[in-house]
Amino acid sequence: MEKLTDLLNELHLENQLTPDDIPNIDLYMDQVIQLFEHTFNRSTRNEDEKVLTKTMINNYAKGKMLFPIKQKKYTKEHLLVISLIYQLKGTLSISDIKTTLDGINEKIDEIDIDSFYSQYLGIAADNVTHFKEDVTSRMTDIKADTKELEHVLLILSLVHMSNMYRKTAEKLVDQLTSK
Q: Cα 126 from chain centroid?
């Protein structure tokens, strides 16, 4: 198996859109896409994978996962919510993402979205640190007859952990729905 530390570094898990990355002017859709591609392109599985497309953004807007866009321009607040959608879409359904972000979208003018998003970035950075430590520890603990079997066991372990986290997140979304 490829050296685990190298593999974890290739994932670019620390890549995040920060408030400082966003210009102080409203952006058109093509500029939004460029910004996201520039920020997250190294995090994709392969070169063909798109980070964000016009269709995705339009679907987010139509699905009410994003508060209304004015004059085809996206504010800093729009970009922060789109970034949250980008993070959530890898695990949650569109319906669950909408439920999760409904409160933010409904109260966007009342919420200090910069502060909220900065809190998220701090949590995400801690998560990356803990994740790398956890995966390294799991790999050290896994012993099998061959390297290939160890590799498969690590995959199974990671998928199992992922499923447990996803199921827990879904239950938390369900709690938002019941409120």
A: 14
3-state class of 63 per DSSP? coil
pLDDT digits (tens, 9 = 90+) for 44-97: 888 888 999 999 999 999 999 999 999 999 999 999 999 999 999 999 999 999
For the chain, domain boundaries: 4-178
Distance between CA atoms of residues 52 and 60, nearest Å: 11
| Residue appearing with tokens 């085809």 | 72
Which residue's entry shows tokens 């990355």? Answer: 21
84 in Cβ contact with 92 (< 8 Å): no
- Give bridge partners of residue 70 from the DSSP assignment: 73
Which residues fall within 8 angstroms of residue 56, CB to CB, at 6 or more apart?
A: 50
What gap in Å lies between CA 174 and CA 100, rounded to an integer? 9
State whether the Cα torsion 84-31-112-60 is positive or negative: negative
SS3 28: strand
Q: What's the DSSP call for residue 68?
A: P
Distance CA 38, CA 34 (A): 6
Decide: 16 and 124 in contact? Cβ < 8 Å: yes
CA gap 36, 30 in Å, rounded: 10
| Strand, helix or coil for residue 27 | strand
